[in-house]
Specification:
Length: 402
């Protein structure tokens, strides 16, 4: 029998973990937003799309999608983390607090001169590296970006166009991160990585704080309190930032929080099942390049293992369905252009109708208000057309158990 497209697991973690939420207080989130707001000419809140007709079809009160496909013109949310973390690095270099500096200060000629040459380095599936290269170019620094084997040319090119020196390695994402860290040590590069490891936590935490702008904008704009929040995970930094921002709102009833992962890189799914952090190795082959990470960011784990209730492991068909579903909306609902890693939530919505047990387990009913994040647009345009126009990676709805 073919494996199911969607599998749900409840979080069974019982590990004692550090409470990291003090780094995501309302004040800290406001400070991040204030930095992003200072990026005049670049920063704008992204749309929160209300999918009323889709909600009626699913039998819930409402569905909202925070659409990051237009963020900073980079087609993904990732520039939020890169920009804030780079600002924090520079502030530290100058012996200042980040709230003492803003975008004008960072771009001032004398600050550039004082700091001299800096090379920011990162490993990426695509979007984070583009964000790092973009911010480095704006501020006048160099960047080096390593990408895992199998990276799409369109994604490599988008980063090279921002002025980064790009190298595609022979390794998967997690091994590429290790290689980048070792090479940075040798070359004196400043690592701006969106995942942590022992002894390297400060910068990934700043990156996670940077993502709170996305979640904060969405939650502020929502006319109703969400009852269910869904966030996709690669290393989990983004999902943890969303979860932390939700908690910071102090809602009377905390929304049910569900992580969504690619089944080929489902490290949260396996970790929730076993109740402790576990890696997934191998080639991590999935169309969801941004979610093709087999090792969890330990900082994200400490937040999500303490607070997320569920994880959904999703096959590639789920992402492809989501791209088509959000790209071809019902009635007057607005179209959303979602790339593979962004669209996973759309596919979950499209399949919930077939998985009544999941609806029951998650407690979805006519009072539910669902919030999703479309974290990327068509970052690989040929693939987007293959899937949305050409119908590749299809779902057979006639099968009883999809
Ligand atoms: C489009 C997109 N969505 C989601 C994610 C997952 O973010 P994280 O690795 O922080 O879990 C990524 C990561 O690269 C991404 O590019």
């Amino acid at each position: 029998m073919q494996a199911l497209l969607l599998e749900l697991i409840k979080n069974n973690t019982t590990q004692e973990l550090r409470p990291l939420l003090q780094n995501f207080s309302k004040e800290k989130i406001a400070r991040v937003r204030s930095f992003h707001r200072s990026m005049w000419g670049y920063y704008q809140s992204t749309p929160l799309v209300e999918l009323k007709e889709l909600a009626a079809w699913l039998g819930v009160r409402n569905i909202f999608v925070k659409d990051e496909s237009g963020r900073f013109g980079l087609k993904a949310f990732k520039g939020l983390g890169a920009s804030y973390a780079m600002a924090c690095c520079i502030a530290r270099e100058l012996g200042k607090e980040v709230d003492e500096i803003d975008f004008d200060y960072l771009t001032a000629e004398d600050v550039r001169e004082k700091l001299g040459k800096i090379t920011f380095a990162t490993a990426t599936d695509g979007n984070h590296g583009r964000g790092v290269a973009w911010m480095a170019r704006i501020l006048g620094y160099d960047s080096v970006v390593y990408m895992p084997k199998g990276t799409a040319e369109a994604r490599r090119l988008a980063i090279a166009r921002e002025g980064a020196a790009v190298r595609i390695t022979d390794f998967n994402y997690d091994e590429t991160v290790r290689l980048l860290a070792a090479d940075s040590e040798k070359n004196g590069w400043t690592v701006l990585q969106d995942t942590a490891w022992p002894g390297y936590e400060e910068i990934p935490l700043w990156i996670m704080q940077g993502y709170t702008t996305m979640a904060g904008e969405a939650l502020e704009e929502m006319p109703d309190t969400p009852t269910h929040v869904f966030a996709q995970a690669g290393v989990g930094s983004m999902a943890a930032a969303v979860q932390a921002t939700v908690i910071a709102q102090g809602y009377e009833k905390e929304p049910v929080f569900t992580i969504m992962e690619a089944s080929e890189a489902n490290c949260f799914f396996r970790s929730f099942e076993q109740g402790r952090m576990l890696p997934v190795g191998g080639d991590l082959e999935t169309i969801m390049a941004g979610l093709a990470c087999g090792e969890i960011n330990p900082l994200a784990w400490e937040i999500l293992a303490n607070h997320a209730q569920y994880c959904l492991s999703c096959r590639d068909e789920v992402a492809a369905l989501g791209m088509r579903l959000w790209g071809n909306p019902l009635g007057k609902d607005q179209k959303i252009t979602a790339g593979e890693s962004g669209a996973i939530g759309g596919g979950v919505i499209g399949l919930l109708d077939k998985y009544h047990n999941l609806k029951t387990e998650l407690g979805l009913n006519k009072e539910s208000v669902l919030l999703f994040f479309n974290t990327e647009g068509d970052t690989f345009p040929d693939k987007y057309r293959d899937i949305v126009w050409g119908g590749s990676i299809s779902v057979d709805f006639r099968r009883k158990n999809v």
